[in-house]
Please model this.
Amino acid sequence: MTAELVRGQNHPLSQARLEIRVSAGTPIVAGATLGDEQGRIHGVEWVAHPGAPTLPGLEVSRQAAADHRLAVDLDAMPEAVHRVSVLLALPIGAAGPTRFGAVPTPFVAVTGLDGTEVASYTIDGLEAESAVVALELYRRQGAWKVRAIGQGYAGGLADLLTDQGLPQAHQLADGINEAVAQGMARSVPAPPPRTDGDRSRQTAAPALGPDQGGPAPQSAPGPVSPQPPSPYGTQTPGGPGQSAAQPDSYDIQAPGVPGRPAPQPSYQGGTGAGDPAQPSTPTSGGPIDYSHPRRQNAAPPPPPTAPPAQPGQPAQPVAGDATGWSMDERLYNQVWGMFEDLARTTAAYRSAVDFADSRMEKELDQVLSDPRSRIGGQGDAAREAAQAKHGQLVNQARAALDRDIAQLTAEAEVVEPALPPAYASWDNPVWHGYRVPMEIPMALRLGDLHLPESEGLRIPMLVRLPLERGLWIDSGRGGSLDGSFTDSHDLRRLAMETAVAHAARLLAVYPAGEFTVHVIDPAGSGAQPLAPLVQTGVLAAPPAVGAAGVTETLTRLTERVDLVQMAVRGGAPDSLPPGFDTSEQLLIVNDFPHGFDDRAVNQLRYLADEGPAVGVHLMVVADREEAAGYGPLLDPLWRSLLRLTPVPDDHLADPWVGHAWTYEPSFVPPGSQVLQQVLTQVAAARTKYQ
Amino acid sequence: MTKGQAISLQKNDGGSLTAVRMGLGWQAAPRRGLFGSRTREVDLDASAVLFADKQPVDVVFFRHLVSDDGSVRHTGDNLVGGVGQGGDDEAILVDLARIPVHIDQIVFTVNSFTGQTFQEVQNAFCRLVDETNGEELARYTLAGGGSYTAQIMAKVHRAGAGWQMTALGTPANGRTFQDLMPAILPHL
Model:
């Protein structure tokens, strides 16, 4: 039976060999100090920390991690030890948070070796503290007990150790931080922060090709790719009592006591009774903060406001005039809002024209069937009247459409120049000021979309990152809208160039070292288009050639998917081997199915299905006709990939009305060196990163 | 407002209405069964049918929440009704300025999806509200209205450059708006 402790509460321990599990949702340092009867540490040798992880009867981990398991053997404790304090601290020097108030509420549990929970404690109420004594195990009349402490220190480990009477507290704290910093360098970084799915609007639904699942409206799938590790990742399944709401840190405090500072720890641990080294953490006496600590709780900067509209005129458009927590998100929502508006206003227009057509047809039929219309000019008059009615309605509809298009065009004219590189086309000057980013953007522009009624108005096609499906760059002749590309060789080269431009874009918008590109080019036919990637040195390895190269690359990536899946399913994403490359992987396959045997085809299908969830993505450059020999076996593969074309093609449907939109990839302007320049910077940043 | 009465949606100050909302509210039926555990849920649905010259062009209901042109929006299906009185449990918002030029009438209907007649439903009402100022333009009490499962509530139609609303309040029977089509057509 688990005892859920509150601060200051104690619980007897019947076992001597225990494990202390810590879940924090963010990498933290875990350690333990030994104290005598007065709670004093005798010296640095009485502190277990990442730099000195093992003491008699005690072992802690060597590095910062979101989950910890500390092994404790109370029988092995020296006689002089009467107290074992388990401490947690935020790593110093990393780019991460510096106060516990900014991270998910840590949770600690004392378990037996078989995993049964004995006692648990959620350390809530922390604010500016960067180190905390979570629990202490203490001897009382020959028996060991556990007590929930939750004593935080704004001054970090140094203050914590000083409080326990260690003379060399500052030096040791520095030493611990140093050891952690070294450990961090080789540990698996925490998954990147992601925008919460619940903030994404319906507009986040991906555009679907009509042949790829139909135009039915898609509900917004939040990014389903790798979940951040559960803060309870190491908890025993079915461990009772830990409701999902627990990581939410809300200060339990009587409402109606306005102006009361944030609660001080009601229990003062060890020698700290009445100690002036109390963490001075009271924030301004605000109301109860129910916000989830992982959510951004500062108000986002206000969106730019449009100047007041002239009477009778639509408001002047402003870039970023949409909801969102960042400019990135606001622009994303604005672009999707424009996409929806254009889809709907065009739907209104088409519906009106259809109606006008059918009405005129009916009226003309009536004229024909009416015997009176044969007399004199009556028939002609009726015919003209029907046509005039038709023309009038169509003109009205067109006027409404033109009004909306003009407004959207004006909006596009202010939005396009404001777009960040990830959302911008290659001819946008923002690419000339390109710098390797520090964060993954919300989305990536894969090209432009437009409708025949509004040729001039191009909507950026933004897809969420990380990619949720692989890409298929269609090199088949069916991909050519006007049939102008009769030379299949040209089309293939163009398809590969398009693939390279997409891959370059992905490489450029990820932070250094967080995106890795592999290429399979069985016959070497893609050498020329691949040159920008190969020459700048941004590829993980030279393009794999021949059947052996295909097999080797596919096997490596398949194994990677298996490994990450196992780790994620096992709830231990931190358990990947040290040095494991955690970047997102993209595999470009040229000339599929050339060089593929049945096994390789199956591996590719596996990667398409299972890869995106664990950060392995596909970009297949292929002519579907050439794979026709596999029959329906490959249909699921094509369906699972988002089809893009190297030439304008109207195959993408919007998620609201299902119009067929003409897709056009973003081409690098002829003669422009922007691609090379960007890739050179990416390569330089990669070298520095490694 | 009484059945068949037409009101212009021109405002007194000469400006015309730009947005109207049809609201529908009801209360879940009392629980039944020995232990009060067996629920009798009541699911009423609000729908709006867009007509161009008596031809249905688009429908907004719980399976198609936004008209293709975006001018008519349903706030979402409510399967059980409200626990209290007052608020709208389902609402349909109409942006009159954005309705496509060929649409000349919009008919609002209410159906009992779970089949109870309005006699059995507590505190059911539907109303039309001027969305810009919250003023109620029309209100019907459905409860106790007879053993019907549907009502054709009102229509909003073009009149000159603006719009006019006519209260219909015709009882009918049917599970969804499709069943009501024969009953709607005479009102167009």
